[in-house]
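Q: Hi! First time doing this. I have a protein sequence and I read that you can turn it into a structure. Is that right? Here it is:
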Amino acid sequence: MGKKILCVVGARPNLMKIAPVIRALKAGQDPFDVCLLHTGQHYDNAMNDQFFAALGIPRPNINLDVGSASHAVQTAEIMRRFEPVLEQEAPDAVLVVGDVNSTIACALVATKMGIKVIHVEAGLRSYDRGMPEEINRVLTDQISDILFTTERDAAANLQREGIGAERIHFVGNVMIDTLKSQLPHATPMSETLRQSGVSEAFLKGKSDYGILTLHRPSNVDDINILRSLITTAAKISETLPIIFPAHPRTRGRIESYGLMDLINAANIVLLPPQGYLEMLGLMKDARLTLTDSGGIQEETTALGVPCITLRHNTERPITVSEGTNTITGTDPQKIFAAVNNVLKTGGKSGKSPEFWDGNAAPRIAAVLHEWLGPTQQRHVA
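A: Yes, that's right. Below is the predicted 3D structure, encoded as structure tokens:
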């Protein structure tokens, strides 16, 4: 077998990023020996065999089953369980993606054990140190041996932090590799509603609808902010029906804060969390998306769907400068203005950024073949 790369994921969004990378690493005449490890940071019932088959990858070889906990406890537990795995597997490199706790935890253990670290989706910065993900990004980049970026500006971020240009490679966005490959298989909106027991009558004969997603603690843990956002969405739904796939934690906050009546009285359909193909189907045909998700900012830009980001900053500025994204924060007036602009003018048309072409993963594999060197060919008697 080729050089061994241990790929780490901690949550389902990581799998969207790792899937095309694994396929690319296993392709060609000199494939890498790939081991997939799931830390179990986020448990997801939707992670069944069909889900992995759809992404074209096998189920994880190793699952640490860490589960939910505080940031400190979770990070420490991942590190504790990951160390013996590295001792047993002895990979040539550890590949991490994104900015979850699993990313920094596994990168830190690997670098302390003298194992090379590869970071996919490096150099993104919101410059908001109040976001745990920002801390994970900065620290992971500092200890990574090779860093793959999704946009050219990320290299400037990294170099300002003292990371040498020779360690940085602009390859594009692997999330878009998955989007482009899976788009033909996206579940139609009507089927998603049917499976959730929702009648399309809520559209009231309209073909247009909006998507709402909320999960950031800054938005859902403060009762005043969450009430304001739900009230704003309810007002928008008078003109544009809203489909709201709710994160379990978000739904719990809505219920405990007594905000469910606001949703029930509005033209908002509250759905359980949706699978990747279901969300892709909802997004691609939406008139607009209201979100605080970083990944959705990227996906809507690739789909050409106007995105209104309910945050005061973004670590993905290219979705604003070149894509379809508008940052409004949580101010209702700014949100209304952005929505009205979309409904009246169609909003920002945007363009797909450079190298968001579905071929980021093969570029990563090509760089890693050169960086890790040729593999030892097995002797055939």
